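Collaborator request, handled under Task 6.
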Amino acid sequence: MTYGNSLSTSRISSTRARRGRRELRWGRMLRTAQFASPIANNFGLESQHKAKSASLAQFRKVLGNSSTFREALGLLSNIRQSCLSTARVALPNLVALEISAINVDKIWHYNQILAAVFPHFQSLTRLVVWYCDKLKYIFSASMIGNLKQLQHLDIRFCEDLQEIVSENRADEVIPYFVFPQLTVLILQGLPKLRCLYPGMHTSEWPALENFAVCRCDKLKIFAEDLSQNKENNQLDIPAQQPLLPFEKILPNLKDLSLNGKDVKMILQADFPQHLFGSLKQLEIAEDNSACFPIWNVLERFHNLEILSLFQFSFHEEVFSEEGSLEKHAGKLAMIKTLELRWHYHLKQLCKQDSKLGPTFQYLEILKAYRCQSLLILLPSSSVSFQNLTALVAFGCKKLLHMVTSSTAKTLVRLVAIEIYGCRAMTEVVINDKDGVEKEEIVFRKLKTLELRDLDSLTSFCSANYTFQFPSLQELWVIGCPKMKIFTTGEAITPPRVNVWYGETADQRRWANNYLNTTIQHYMLRRYVYTYYSYLP
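Structure tokens returned to the collaborator:
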């Protein structure tokens, strides 16, 4: 889920999914055409070329067939905006619509034709709106009742967007908005967004499972007193309403992404513990405090499996003991995936020789992206990482080593090691013992080892260990100009391992249990191939 992380999409049948992808291409065609007026009810095109008028009946017929996009695009070039200003265009099969970088102040026309036209979009399940800087709102209030199939709403980087639903001044009744099938709501980079609806209203989100809000500084997500954030009624509605009734959506939430300030509000609120039972994935972004209450997070969200921390101000380590581990013993979530992104001051995951066994014993995936002060990912400790399957580091410019030799011995289930653009790294495994004499480190299940753009890497390990890789299938060594040998000690692999020094088939060699010889041959040919640039 990361702002960057992949977020779950709506579940639709395979037939409708294929149709949706075709019609999503239609949305992209509309974007390419550079609309000069709002685009949903008339798809008005201000043509830059002289063209003949097309029959509206023919246009409707073509658009009604979701498989004839090229023919529809051809018709678009022949249709004048004046001809469509009062037209009724139907897209009854439209399942997904993506709108990006369109210079309009509203998507749908609000006029007398709206009631007749918009039901033709009643099949819409997915709407994505990005980089539309002039938009003031997404829907009018009268449209919401026709969005019964909408499952996925993703709005990002629209600078002037102030509300999601515009106010209907003619309606004297307090509106009641229901999104019966909406499972995904993503709001990001909307600096002027203040509310769902500017007037008094009530709303329900019975199916919401994935909720993400980031960099919407004026948006009020919760009530002032979260413990009182209960179902609103028409007799008791606060003057400044939050985005949604948070306590009502909590039991169904599986994926939540908020900034640090909002997460702290949740921690301080007096919520019953069972309300967080369904939450499996949490992303926390942009917290400036020197010490974030990470232990409270792991206790409150007790069924959490995936934790992503984005752009924090940790001074030293993520997990600081200070007696907290004993205080929360037996109450912590069993984290399986931990992602650390853009932590400029973070030096280590935990202190050397820390005793955080209960915290990491279930960890399967550990990823670090752009942690510019990180020195080592897995230090020496009494913690066993026996369930770890994937270890990833990307663009950590000061990272010298991935793991100590003593910790490496506990990685019995590790399947993949991926290291990209860590230009200070000198070796992957660093020896933390004195007088090593023919000790073995066995990566029994490791299948993939990727080493890319590591300018300072000299070897996998410079100590005299014997490494066994009985399951190794793919070794990528790309952009590692100082790597002369694979390891000082012995490296035992299967009879045939793919060793890649580029992306094409002619930049691959077979290693027959002699990785050192293969690496030396690669260096002699001076095949240094840089795949991507990961400059910090």
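The cover message to the collaborator said: "Residues 1-89, 110-118, 227-237, 526-536 have pLDDT under 50 and may be disordered. The chain is about 15% helix and 20% strand. Please let us know whether this matches your experimental observations."
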